[in-house]
Structure formats: C-alpha cells, structure tokens
Amino acid sequence: MTLPRSVVVPGLLAEYQAFGDLIGSLSSEQWQAPSRCEGWSVADVAGHVVGQLADVTALRLDGLGSPEATARQARERRGRTPGDLADELEACTKTAADLVAGFDDAAYAAEGPQGNGQTLGFGLEALWFDTFVHADDIRVPLSLEGSSQSGLAPSVSHISQELTTQGWGPATIRLNGLPEFAVGGGDSGRVISGDPMEFILVATGRSNASGMGLDASVNIYR
Predict the structure, then answer these.
(1) pLDDT tens digit sequence for 106-144
(2) pTM of this prediction?
(3) Which of 63, 115, 144, 168 is the most exposed place for a label (fewest CB within 10 A)?
(4) HEC assignment per residue over 149-201
(5) Burial 154-182 (b: 16+ CB within 10 A, else e)
(6) Could you tell me which of 76, 91, 65, 18 has the C-alpha nearest to residue 43?
(7) Of 82, 83, 85, which Cα lies nearest the Cα of 73?
(8) How far apart are CA 33 and CA 40, in angstroms?
(9) d(Cα 217, Cα 68) in Å, to the nearest integer?
(10) DSSP state of 86
(11) Quick one: DSSP state of residue 117?
C-alpha cells in the first residue's frame, strides 16, 4: 500500500524541484563524470530522470521503466547542458503539477494509466523513489551534500510493494525513523532493521546485501 496522496503528491513535486536544482548547479566537468550507475555519466542519469517525467506527462507510457525506455530517455538528451535539462524538468514539473491537481483520493487509489492493476498512487510513488535514488547516484560520486530525508519513506514503501509482488518475504521492514512496512503480509516474525538509506541501496543492488544480514534475493532488480 502506498503512502497517502497528501504525502506523495507534494513530496514528488518537491523532489523534482530539488533534482532540477541539483543538475542545474553542475559544471560541465561534473556533467560528464561517471555516476554510480555503471556505464552511465551524470548527464545520462539526469537525461533518464527528466525524460521519464517528460514521457509520463505526455502519456508515453509503453515500456516505461524498461531498460530500452530508460536508455532512450538518456540518449535523446545527450549533448544538452545541465541548464537545458533543468529547464525541461521545470516545464515538465509544472505540467505534472497541473495534472495531479485534478486527482482526488478515489483516483489516487484507482488503477493508473500505467495499467497492470497498479494504482495511480503506486505509479507516483515509484517516480518519487526513482528520482530520489538517482539524485543519490549523482551526489555520491561527486561528493555532494544535500540528500533529502523525505525520499526515504516513499522509497522503502515502493521497495516493500515490489518485494511483495515478487514473492519475497514475509517480513516486516522496521528501519530507523520510519514507519513499519510489511512484505508479503509481514507475519513471519522476520524483522529487517537498520539504516533506511543502506536498505534502499541494498534492495536496489547498489550495496552488498550481506551488510544487513540479507542475500541478493532482496534486490528488486534481480
């Protein structure tokens, strides 16, 4: 179950604003530097994040989230400057704000345009998670500060839903400073505790799962 609309909608828009501020501040050298995503530059990561929102607001949803769509989004924006992408993201965020302003709680809980039985809320929370994690993929190799704590809960919420869908668990995710999230019912007595960001990194294959006493099956991208 996703976080409430009253949390996700403003939080998602604020995350995009923060991402635009981040990429707009980068130098040309930082723009071409390697990101934490293997084989991708900082510019490629930014191109994916901006391109994903551009696709969503234009309702180009076929294959969204697939490796092919992700690569296309980055490829289409190669050669553009940090300012160019920050401007595109600002325009797309305004469009997104206009769109989500028309959604009430019933629409949020109903199946979204992405289909597959997933709710609109699930889709919006997934976008927040993706943007938050990719901002970290840029900041960490560039040794930049400023990661927002507000993206932790929606990221763990999204991961718990993905793990449930994949049949992982049951387990209860009880991380420092966050509410509990159940995976697969969460009734087995197995409890995952620790630092939220470390769990996010582990569950997305960015950090070794053994550090939290887990194995590679917790990676939602396995």
Answers:
(1) 999 999 888 788 999 999 999 999 999 999 999 999 999
(2) 0.96
(3) 115
(4) HHHHHHHHHHHHHHHHHCCCCCEEEEECCCCCEEECCCCCCCEEEECHHHHHH
(5) bbbbbbbbbbbeeebbebbbebeebeebb
(6) 76
(7) 85
(8) 9
(9) 24
(10) H
(11) T
